[in-house]
Amino acid sequence: MHQIKRYLPILFWAKTYNRQTATSDLVAALIVTIMLIPQSLAYALLAGLPAEMGLYASILPLVAYAIFGTSRALSVGPVAVVSLMTAAAIANLGLSDPVEIAMAAVTLAFISGLILLAMGFFRLGFLANFLSHPVIAGFITASGILIAASQLKHIFGVQMHGHTLPQVLGDLVAHIGQTNLITVAIGIFAVSVLFWVRKGLKPLLLSFGLTPRNADILAKAGPVAVIVVTTLITWLFNLGEHGVKIVGQVPTGLPPLTLPNFNPGLWNQLFVSALLISIIGFVESVSVAQTLAAKKRQRIEPDQELIGLGASNVAAAVSGGYPVTGGFSRSVVNYDAGAETPAAGAFTAVGIAVATLFMTPLLHFLPKATLAATIIVAVLSLVDFSILKKAWGYSKVDFAAVAATIVLTLAFGVEVGVSAGVILSIALHLYKTSRPHVAEVGLVPDTQHFRNILRHDVETHPHLVTLRVDESLYFANARFLEDYVLNRVTCDQPIEHVILMFPAVNEVDMSALETLEELNRRLTDMGIALHLSEVKGPVMDRLKRSHLLTDLSGQVFLSQYEAWQWLKVPTPERTEQESIATDQ
Amino acid sequence: MHQIKRYLPILFWAKTYNRQTATSDLVAALIVTIMLIPQSLAYALLAGLPAEMGLYASILPLVAYAIFGTSRALSVGPVAVVSLMTAAAIANLGLSDPVEIAMAAVTLAFISGLILLAMGFFRLGFLANFLSHPVIAGFITASGILIAASQLKHIFGVQMHGHTLPQVLGDLVAHIGQTNLITVAIGIFAVSVLFWVRKGLKPLLLSFGLTPRNADILAKAGPVAVIVVTTLITWLFNLGEHGVKIVGQVPTGLPPLTLPNFNPGLWNQLFVSALLISIIGFVESVSVAQTLAAKKRQRIEPDQELIGLGASNVAAAVSGGYPVTGGFSRSVVNYDAGAETPAAGAFTAVGIAVATLFMTPLLHFLPKATLAATIIVAVLSLVDFSILKKAWGYSKVDFAAVAATIVLTLAFGVEVGVSAGVILSIALHLYKTSRPHVAEVGLVPDTQHFRNILRHDVETHPHLVTLRVDESLYFANARFLEDYVLNRVTCDQPIEHVILMFPAVNEVDMSALETLEELNRRLTDMGIALHLSEVKGPVMDRLKRSHLLTDLSGQVFLSQYEAWQWLKVPTPERTEQESIATDQ
C-alpha cells in the first residue's frame, strides 16, 4: 500500500483538500488558462505542428501530472525549448505528409514518456546532473535565439525550413523578396504592444487605481487583447486574402484518442531525440519546481517528478498532443496567482478543454504573425549572456563549456549543441582531475599544522619529504602522482622518507592502488621508505583489503604530526640517540 | 639547441658511449635477434600479413627508436596484441587482394605513427591514463585468449576468418573436418617442445654443467631449434605436398622503400583503429619501459616515448612494415642480456637485416603450424585471470570494469572491448563521484577533532548541524549535496546553523558554486544560517571571485573548532550571556 502511495502523491494532498484551497486553485487555474491558450497554439506552431495539437497537449497531460506530480505549483504543458527540440527531431525524419508529422510528434511524446517513467522507476534522476549549469544556461540562451530567429518567417510571411542559425538567416535572406508587408505590419505591431504590455501596462493600470493584484491579472491577459485585436482586424479587412497567413480551420471538440506509431524503425530514429528532450525537459521542470517548493518550505521528489512528467507525456501521446514539460514562466504565474495544490493544473485542463470545445472557431482568423510575436517576446527573456561573463570571471574551464555549447547549438542545432555540451563538461572535468594538486608541506613552527612550503615559512628536514595530495586517486591521475613523486626524489638530497598525506583523498581505486604498490616497490629499490598519513576511514577500510599496507616499506600514521615526530630524526642520529637513551 | 636535444635523447647517451657499453649492447642484440626472427614472422602471420613484413617491421623501427626513444632496454618491433589489433583493423576493410591488405597495414602504421608523434609534441601522454589498470589487464588477458584461439587454424590446418571468440570457435567446428593430421602432429610437437623449453631446458643445461648465463642464453635459442627441426622434417619428407601449410617464398633483400596510401577514405576508415592501436601500444610499451628503468634508478620521459614510438611506426610504414611497439617479453630479455643503451636495438636491427639478406631462403619450408605454436606459447603467458579475483576483493566497481572488458573483448573483438572498457571506467568513476560521501560530525570530547556521529561518540548541539563533505563538488554531485542538506534540515529540530566542512573539497566548479548560492538562499528563507569551515586555499581563492562569500548568511571559519566555539551557544542564550557579560 505504502508502495502504491509513493507513486501517487495525490493521495497525500487530496485528503486535506478543502473549499479554501479549491478557491485559490481555481483563481490560479483561470489566470494560467488565459495565458496558456495563446501559448499552446504558438508553441505548436513553433514545433511545426497544427495549432490544435498545442491545445491537446494542454489537457490530459495536466491531469496526469496532478495525479503523479509532487510539485504544487508546476504548470505542465507545451514549452518553448521542448517545442523547438520537437521540431528538430521531426525535421531529422524528413517527412512531408502532415499526418505522418503529427503521428511522429505523438510517438516522440510516447517514447519520451516511457524514458521518463523508466528513469523514475529506476531512480535515475541523478543522470540529469551530468548537464552542468553552464551547459544548461548556454543551451537555453542559444535556444532562445534560435527560436526567435525561427519565428521571423511568420513575421515576414516567408518560407523557412532551417534548424540552425546559419540556415535560418540564410533562408530569410534568400526569401526576403517574398516579404508580405501587411504581415510585417501585424508582426511589428504585436511585438511592440507585447513588449509594452510586459513593462508599461501594469503601472498604467495601477495609475488608474486598480489594486496591484487585479492590475497584475489584467496585465497577464494583455497578450489575449493583442490576439483579439489582430484577429478582428484580419477578419474585418479579410487580410487572409491578401497573403496574411492565418491559423485557419481548427477542429472543434475534445482531443481524439490516439495511439503512437509502433514502427521500430521510427522508434530507432526518434530515440536519441526523445532521450535529449526527456532530460532537458526534466532539468528545466525540476529546477523551477524546486525553486517554487523551497519558497514554501516544501520538498519535491525528483525521482517522482520523473514519473509525473513521464505520465504527462504518455497522456499527451494518447490524446493527440506532443512532448510537454513544466514551463518556467507559466509555473511562476501559477504560483503567484496562489495555486496551492496540483489540482490547479487539473482545473486549467478543464479550462483548456472548454476552449477547445467552444472557442476554436474564433481562432480561424488569428494571424500566425501574432503567435510568432508572442513566442519572440516570451523567449527573448530566456536569452541571457551574463552567464558568459560570470563563467569567465570564475573559471576558464566553465567558460569554455558555456561558449562551446552556445556556439555549437546556434551553428549545428539543439541536439548537437546539448550533446556536445555534456561530453565537453565531462571531458573538462576529467582533464582537471587528471592533474591533481600536490603540495609539499612542512611544519608551521610551534603548531601541529602542516602547510605548503611555497606559501608559508615552515620547518622541513632534508631527509624527509611530505606531499599532501589534494585529489581522490583514480585511474586518470594515479600515474601523474607516481611521476610526481619519482621526479621529486630523484635528486642529490639524502631522502630517507616520503610521506603521502591523504586528508583530501576520498577514493583510491584499483588503478591508483596498483600505482601506490608500484611506487612503494620503486622507492624501496631506491632505499626510500614510503609512509601514509591522515588516511580517511573509508579509504583505509578499502586499503585494508589489499596487500599495500602489508608490503608498505614505511608506516601509516593517524596524524601527520605523529609521522613528523617519529621520522624527523635521520636514521644514524636516531640510533645514536636510542643508544644514549639506553645508556641512561 | 636545447629544444632539439629534448627531442633527440641519443645526444645524451651517445657522448658517453664506449667499448664496454658497446660489448654488452652487442651481446644483448645477438640474443634478442635470435628471439625476434621467429617472433617477427609469427606475428606477421597473426596480423594476416606476409611473413617478410614482420622482418621489415623489425629493422628501421628499431633504428628510429634508438634515436628518439628514452628507454635503454625497450625492444621495439612487432608484438602480439598490436598484431591482433592490426588484423582486426584490416578485417574491417573487407579487402581480399593481398597487395591492398599489405598497403592497408603500411598505412595503418603511418597513421598510428602520426598520432603518436602529435600526442608527443602536444604532451598528451596523460590521455593513456584514461585506460584504467583493470581495463588494461582484462583487455590483455582477453586478447591472449583470442590470439591463441585464432592460431588454432594453423595447428589444424583449416580455414578461419573470425575475429571474435564465437566466430573463431564456430569456424573451427565448421571446418574441423578438413583437419590435416600431419599439420596437427607438427603443431602439437612444437607446442609441447616449446612449453618444455620454457620450463625444463634451463635446468637440464645446468645439470650438464653450463654456467647459468650460458644456460639462459641457450634456453632462449630453444624456439629456434624447434623451427629448424620442423623445417627440416617438412623439407625432407616434402610435407608441403601433403597439405602442410608452409611459409613459402620469402623475398630476399633489404626492406623496400614504401609510401602509405593517402586515400582520404582509407584514412577515415583506419583512423579509430590507428588511435586505439597507438594508445594500447603506448600503454604496453611505457609500462615495461618504466619498470625496467626503475630497476636502474633511471627515468623515462613518457611524452618523449610517444615521439620515439611515433618515429618507429613512421619508419615501419616507409619500409614495408606494420604497426610496432615495445614488446614486454623481448624487452625483459634485452634487459637481462645486459643492454645498456638504445644502441642494442640498433644492433638488433642489423642482425635482422642480415637475416633478411641471407636467411629467407631457409624459411621456405618453415611450417605455419610451428609459428602458430610459438605464438600460442608466447601469448598464454599474457592470460591472467587473477586480476578478476583481486578486483572482486578490492572493489566491485573495478571488478565490473575488468569483467565487462574481458567479456566484450572476447565476444565482440579487441576494438569494441577496449573502447567499452574506457567508456565504462569513466562512467563508473562519474557515478561514484556523483554520490559523494557526506558525514555529519560532532566534537570528540576534550579534543579539537570532529568525527562522524555514526562512528564515534561525539558532542553535538540540536541547533547546530555540521556536515563534512568528502568529495570535490562539481556538476555531477552538486545537486546531490543540495538535496542532502535540505532533507537533513527539514525536520522539527530547532536548527539555527548549518556548517559545511570542506577539508576534502579540492574543487568547486561553477555548477557547484551556483548550487551553494541556491542552498544559501533556501536556508536563509528557512531562517537557517549557512557557514563554511576549513576551506582549502585554492578553493577559497576561487570562491573569492564569486558572490557566494558576500551573500553567505553565515561566516567562513578557518577551523571547524573555531566555528564550533562561536556557534555552539543558541542565539537567545548567547544574547543573554552577552548582556551578562556587559553587566560585569
From TrEMBL, chains A, B:
Membrane topology, record value: Multi-pass membrane protein
Domain STAS span(s) in chain numbering: 454-548
Species of the source: Pelagimonas varians
Compartments in which it is found: Membrane
Keyword Nucleotide-binding in annotation: no
Cellular component GO terms held in the UniProt record: membrane
Alphabetic keyword roster: Membrane, Transmembrane, Transmembrane helix
Protein name stated in the entry: Putative sulfate transporter/MT1781
Residues annotated as transmembrane: 26-47, 53-69, 76-95, 101-122, 134-152, 172-197, 217-237, 270-294, 306-324, 344-363, 370-388, 400-428
GO BP: any one term: transmembrane transport
Major subcellular site: membrane
